[in-house]
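Example record for the data management plan.
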Amino acid sequence: MLHTVNKSPTERNTLDSCLAHVKKGSAILLIEDGVYAALKGTESAKKLEATLKTVPVYALQPDLEARGMSGRVLDGVKLVDYGGFVDLVAEHPTVQSWL
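Corresponding structural encoding:
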């Protein structure tokens, strides 16, 4: 399953909900304001660090760039472009959007 998170972790609890339900074999994709969760040195980044041990975490690079976050992303978070987003959707038979 691919889990997408599009809300800032400081605005909503969608990241926490996602992390509570994600299982091995799944992946997380941070999009839109959800990319703020991958910002180094934040509480949400600490949560993602633990998750990265068992589940891959991706962030949409154009959304990071639009928010001035290039180069400030937690180590281990893989950056993808729109083509990579499509590849992730095609790779996972189910997509859960956390709103």
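Summary line stored alongside the record: The chain has a mean pLDDT of 96.
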